[in-house]
Amino acid sequence: MKKRLGTIAAAAILSLANIAHAEPADFEQWVAGFRAEASAAGISQSVLDDALNNLSINTRVYELNDNQPEFSRGIWDYLDSAVSATRVANGRTKYQENRALLTLIDQAYGVDAEIIMAIWGLESSYGAIMGNYDAIQALATLAFEGRRTGYGRSQLIGALKIIQHGYANRGDLKGSWAGAMGHTQFIPTTYLAYAIDHDGDGKRDIWNNLGDVFASTANYLSVSGFRGNEAWGIEVRLPTDFDYALADTSIKKAVVEWAATGLSSIRGPSLVDGFDPNIRGRLIIPAGASGPAFLVFENFEAILKYNRSTAYALAVSLLSEEIAGRSGAVVAAWPRDDRPLSLSERKDLQQALKDRGYNPGPVDGIIGAGTKKALRSFQQSVGIPADGYASAKVLEALK
Ligand SMILES: [Ca+2]
């Protein structure tokens, strides 16, 4: 029978083999070793018994941890769902419902209410989807084996500390498969460092108490450098002969300096109107030269500390505008016909650059600074805008 397995069945077995990591006995042995480590880190025997006795692996966590998608979505598709009409409408309702509480939080932490609402909306759809995994089990599973063992170990110790401090009970620790918990999805170490007991009941309850949730989120943003009443950024128009090498994470300039390079506001005539001309920012072109451009300031960087994804920070920023009753619409069109490259195509692109004598760095499908630089050199050599953006069109041009 085994010889007659079709390709699909064989592939299924192969993928199961990839995720059938180890035997239960190995996990029990691992738990015993981890107990000693956690005990040395100061976790009491009773907390360890409560959390780790009869603990088992959650194989679903391995499936999700091993999943590295071949195809990536365009940022425009992500923004369409992140800043959907439903999420905007729900955000405005939640803002109204919690206005008094949010005013208190804004006064205490200097973080604008609409930003807290936007993060809440993106992290859990305003508390509707917080994740129902047992965080202790999920983190122990990650700590035991796979590509996040270091993360799993440190977060598991963090989760045990949360219980030991009495901030939350063992049964409260519910979250995503990767251990992000509560309304705004704090991982345990973030929780330990920044979660706040706003109502003073002794618990930092990011699962049930909105005061604790909003204060914790505002505190984290504030410590990350967020400043109330300052803009996250602005959509800009670039001059036709613009040097796209200026759109680089390492290049920050004051608004007046950017205006001198030819940038203008896409909505108004002047870039400096409505801004402190000395506020500093960097330029991002998330979909390359044929898509929108944004000048982003320190508050954008603070949002990035919450989640290191430009698409995420842009979604929070645009959603916050809509929740506050301003327009979060992006004016310039996204290049919806120029699809993002798949993982194997990104590797093809790096190989093609290498074959042409450029140095894109390792052929790993990760478009980092080296690949962008090589891509810009190639684009310059053939006279197309040197934005370093890896798209299907530029791959075609390379081949
Ligand atoms: Ca509390």
TrEMBL record:
Q: Which UniProt keywords apply?
A: Signal
SUPFAM superfamilies cross-referenced by the UniProt entry? Lysozyme-like, PGBD-like
Family matches, as CDD domains: Slt35-like
The secretion signal range is: 1-22
Write out the coiled-coil annotation as residue ranges.
none
Looking at the record's lineage, which domain of life comes first? Bacteria
Q: Which residues form the Transglycosylase SLT domain?
A: 27-321
All copies of the Peptidoglycan binding-like domain together span 344-398
Answer whether the UniProt record assigns the keyword Signal to this protein. yes
Listed InterPro entries: Lysozyme-like_dom_sf, MltB-like, MltB_2, Peptidoglycan-bd-like, PGBD-like_sf, PGBDSf, SLT_2
* Name the record gives this protein: Lytic murein transglycosylase
Top-level taxonomy: Bacteria, Pseudomonadati, Pseudomonadota, Alphaproteobacteria, Parvularculales
